[in-house]
Each structure stands twice: as C-alpha cells, then as structure tokens.
Amino acid sequence: MFVPDTEFKMIHRHFDGDRTLVQVMPELHRLTYGNTKPYSFNPWSKHQEQIAEWFLRDGVHKNIVEKFSVTTGVMQNPVTIFTAIENFVLINGRRGIEGEFIIAPQYLTFGDRFCRKGILNEKSIVDMLVAGIKEGERKLKSETGRAMRFRMRFGIGREVSLKEAVRLVRVMLECDPNYVPGISLVCHEPSAPPEKFVDAFRLAKSEGRKTACHVEWVKDREEWEKDTPEKIRRNFQEDLPQLTKNLDTAIHLLDVDQIDHGFGLAENPELMKTVADKGTIVTVCPGSLLATNLINDIKMLKIREMLDAGVTVAIDVDDDIFMPTMAEVLRLYVDAYRMPALAENLDRLKADMAKLAENSKLTQIITP
C-alpha cells in the first residue's frame, strides 16, 4: 500500500493542543499545583486516551476554553511555560517537524500559586515562549546538526471585545517579527464572526504582519444532532451560507493571508478562484473536522478539487493531543483516493502528497 514519504512543515497546530504536552503534563501539573491538587489523569495507564476522552466528551466545541484549561491551566508561570514550549520544539524537531504554531498568550495570564495574577502579561509570556523556542532550537542544532525553525502566530480569542483585540495586536507588534510574524483569530467562532475584528486585522496588515482567520463552524450542535452521515451532511448544507459569508469576509474585508480550515470554500468556485489568484493560503485539518463531526468523510473537504483549482492548500493536524496525528491524517487522504487500485491513481496520490508538502513549505512566513 502506498505510504507517503514526503516531508511536511507544521502550518496549523495549536501549542496548547499539541500531543507533545502529554509527555510533560504531569510535571507541569506538579510545578503548578505542588501537592495540593491531584492530577486529573493517570499518567501510567492510557494517558493519551484519557486526555482525548476529556476533550471529546459531549463534543469538543462545547465549553472549548474550559476544556483547554487542562493544558493552559498548567502554563501559568515562567517555569511551566518555558518547559512546555522547549519540550514542544525538541520533540517535534527530533521527529523532523518544524514550522509555525498558534498560541493565544491571553490564556496564560491567569496565574497560579507560584505566580499570582497580574505578574505576567501577554508580552512577557511571548518573551518566555520565544526564549524557550530559541533554547529548543539550540539544543536541536547541537543534537542533530540541523538548524530547525519554529515560529508562533499570536492567537486572538474571539471572546474578547474589538478594543481588546486591537490592544492584543499592538502587543503582538512589540514582539520580534522573526519569531512572531503575525496573528490568528481563534476559538469560539459562532459567537464572534470575523467582521467583528476588522480594525484589529487592518492594524496588523498596516504594519506588515501576516494575518490568519479560522473559518470552521458557525453553529453549536449537540452530539445527537450530528451522529449520522445524513445529519452531518444536512448540517453542512444548512451552515454553508454562513460559512460562505465568513469566508467572503475573511478574504475581502479582512484581506487575510491565510484561512485556517477554510470549511466550505470548495463549494464556491468564485471564492476559490479569488483565493487562488490572491495566493491566499488555506490550511485543512481533516482529522479535526472528523473528530468534531463537521464532516463524516474526508472527501467532503474537496482537497483535491482545491488543488486542481490552484489553491495553495496545506494539510495539518490542528490539535493532535486528542485528534489524529499527521501520519493518520495522511492515511485518511490515501485511503479516500487509492481506489480503484490503478497505476494512475497511485501516480495522482504521489502528486497530491508532493503538492501538499510543497504548499506546507510555501506557507511558511519565517523571515530570514
């Protein structure tokens, strides 16, 4: 069976949802709470599965900020923040994976018993993250002889006000563009469509920083409302007008450099052509949309159709602490398109994988 051997860059991964955290969460928990709070998961027995079950319980979209407090909640002081990001760089780098990730510093400012609220702010947190990145890169160079590069998108959670979003962009503008090249609009999409953040995006663009916006889901649904393929496809058709509006807003009004998920884009040939002509990057995370029951089949995303239309589409994992790994995501694509077992199918799969890998490299906005 065909197994892709191409090298993909990291392009759409959330630091607080990365699988590398599983390896250090017990230690981060100890450094955060001491012996005052029992660790929520058994680190010696199916640790990964327990964490995945926590995130997916009742649907990951429900109480999303609260669920991610399992990881962000143990990154509230300088030691745990530095330890987590250095570990992220080292483990991914040793696997040969480098590139860009997303983190919203606003979720790391709440403090803990060792670092009370008010001591850390978004800028100081970014400084710690950058220091951890540099130390991880240094160790990787010493271990492997290879200079690997990691950069962060400054995430802005949608629950903030427009004024607060503009303030966060101003904080981002104070950060080193070599390590913090731009912003990404993240978190609960139904409550805050992208038009709310026009001023913040225009500010970032005016200063030459890169911008990205998630367009993924527009309505919260209970799990029983999306537990069959028929319901999932009906939901998609119901959501498509709002998804299309959000895509149009991101493309034209926000003038983003990157659309994360881009769910529904392939259903609109006009928008797809605009994206291709503008060179807008589109990241697709099939495992994420399958895990959240927004799709039931990877072919619903029409990745191949976007490639054929000239869209710079790249593929990644989103939050693999509870979603499929990159190897599993690539296998999903291969399994979807490998039949019938003909030579031309294998050739097309190889071409698709090569193009998706190439696009993941093109999307890197790291400055020299």
Would you tell me which CATH topology applies? TIM Barrel
At the first level of CATH, the class is: Alpha Beta
- Total strands: 7
Named at the architecture level, the CATH assignment is: Alpha-Beta Barrel
Q: Strand fraction band? A: 5-15%
Order of helices and strands: HHHHEHEHEHEHEHEHHEHH
Question: Span between N and C termini?
Answer: 39 Å
CATH superfamily: Metal-dependent hydrolases
Oligomer: single chain
Structural class: alpha/beta
Described by strand count, sense and barrel closure, the largest sheet is: 7 strands, parallel
Q: What is the 3D form? A: globular
Can you tell me about this structure?
- 44% of the residues are buried.
- This protein has a 7-stranded parallel beta sheet.
- 46% of the residues lie in helices and 9% in strands.
- The chain has one domain: TIM Barrel, CATH 3.20.20.
- By secondary structure, the protein is an alpha/beta fold.
- The chain starts with 24 loop residues before the first helix and ends in a 6-residue tail after the last helix.
- It contains 13 helices and 7 strands.
- Helix 8 (229-253) links the parallel strand 4 and strand 5 (258-260).
- It is globular.
- The mean pLDDT is 93.
- Helix 1 packs antiparallel against helix 4 and helix 6 runs parallel beside helix 7.
